[in-house]
Amino acid sequence: HGVTVLEARASMLADDRRTLAIAYGSKVILENLGAWPEANEVTSIDNIHVTQRGHFGQTIITAQDAGVPALGYVMRYNALVEALTRALTTAAIEVVTGAVVERVVSHEQEAEIHWHQGASSCRTRLAVLADGGRELTATTFGAPEESRYIQVALVAQVHTDQPHHGRAYERFTPSGPVALLPFARHYALVWTGTQEAVEALIALPEAVFLARLQDYFGDRAGQFLQVSGRSWFPLTLKVVKQVTRPHAVCIGNAAQTMHPVAGQGFNLGLRDAAGLCQAAQEVPREALGGAEMLANYVSRRARDRRAGINLTHALVTGFSNHWPMLPLLRGQALTAMNLLPVTRRALARIMMFGVGVRD
Fold first, then answer.
1. Beta carbons of 13 and 77 less than 8 angstroms apart
2. Are residues 103 and 171 in the same domain?
3. C-alpha distances in angstroms, 75 versus 13, 22, 79, 156?
4. pLDDT 10s digits, 127-157
């Protein structure tokens, strides 16, 4: 099957300094595509330390628990884009840049795609929308069900006085989770809270911010010495109920946008893409994008998609609130997980490979 990529940006390459957490299962997919970044652009996550602020209970999930070389990897967004761009070039896949798609029209035998204010168009047996959940997805597949979380996410880079040794931290608090992801010689910080609280944190002088973070996080990662690049973004759960139309499908954040608490958004989206490729390879060209193929894709992805959405939402609501009895229950759950390697392994493999997906 021939493939053409319509890219809205003027260039595939952009100076995007955001960090991504890539699960080990996603690395396997990307390596099979020849799209894994250079080793010096990637930092491995060898273990994850999970705690809750002000209460007992902790667990450490290790790569050894899960039987893999690493639980995941942290990289710059632009490093992944560069690797994907190289893979597209190697595969001789056509890429049309500056193609802002305005309309996708489904027909009985094909889909019609229009861009450049309608001046350009093409017909295809399968249109795949992966636009991150913008207006085009809503007009093509219907408005998603949307729930805005009370938290927003502060992101930054922080340096400590101790090497990270490949350890990531997830600390749950009543106002929202705080995560540290090892990257190069520092950490990528994700700190969630109300918009008012996060904006106040961003406005603090560096020394005051670091002291506040130290108080909130403790000294398990060492002493915080430096912070840079503080910014924030809103957190929303968006779920498209019907992800297919005749000869059209939406995947990734276009199909579901989730809270970043478990780092599952990109990884779930990549498994969407892999599942769609598998479904497409199983049918002849004339059946591409047909009802049977798309139904097979939806069925194949249903369990993993539902589990990813529900698990992420449960972590937010179950670990980030002020209900009096929840700290005790959370502490018991974390302690039990720490004592039961089989439970840690099961959770780690779900995070890495998804649910109902062959690893």
1. no
2. no
3. 15, 8, 7, 14
4. 999 998 888 999 999 999 888 778 888 999 9
How many domains would you assign to the chain? 2
Residue 281 domain-assigned (yes or no)? yes
Q: Are residues 176 and 275 both part of a single domain?
A: no
Could you read off the pLDDT of 49-70 as tens digits, one per residue?
A: 888 765 545 788 899 888 899 9
Helix (H) or strand (E) holding 244: strand 244-245
261: amino acid identity, one letter? V
User: How many angstroms separate the Cα of 67 from the Cα of each of 62, 248, 349?
Assistant: 9, 38, 9
**Average pLDDT, stretch 10-18?**
76
Prediction pTM value:
0.86
Is residue 184, in this structure, part of any structural domain at all?
A: yes
Q: 81 and 195 share a domain?
A: no
How far CA 349 is from CA of 36, 257, 270, 353, in Å, comes to 21, 21, 16, 6
Question: What's the CA gap between 213 and 191, in Å, rounded?
Answer: 9
Residue type, 89: T
> Do 250 and 130 meet the contact criterion of CB atoms below 8 Å apart?
yes
One domain, residues 14 and 107 = yes
More confident residue, 260 or 207: 207
Q: What residues does 145 pair with on adjacent strands?
A: 239
The sheet carrying 256-257 orders its strands as 58-62, 47-52, 167-172, 178-183, 186-194, 145-160, 224-239, 256-257
User: Positive or negative, the Cα torsion across 225, 226, 232, 236?
Assistant: negative
**Do both 153 and 210 map to the same domain?**
yes
Per residue in 66-107, pLDDT tens?
889 999 999 999 999 999 999 999 999 999 999 999 999 999
Return the CATH number at 200.
3.30.9.10
Residue 303 sits in a domain whose CATH number is 3.50.50.60
Exposure of 248 in the CB half-sphere (CA atoms within 13 A): 25
Domain holding 13, by residue range, is 4-45+70-144+241-316
d(CA 60, CA 261): 17
Q: What is the pLDDT of residue 263?
A: 65
Q: Could you tell me the pLDDT band of residue 180, with boundaries at 50, 70 and 90?
A: very high
Pick the closest to residue 305 from 359, 346, 265, 249 (CA basis). 265
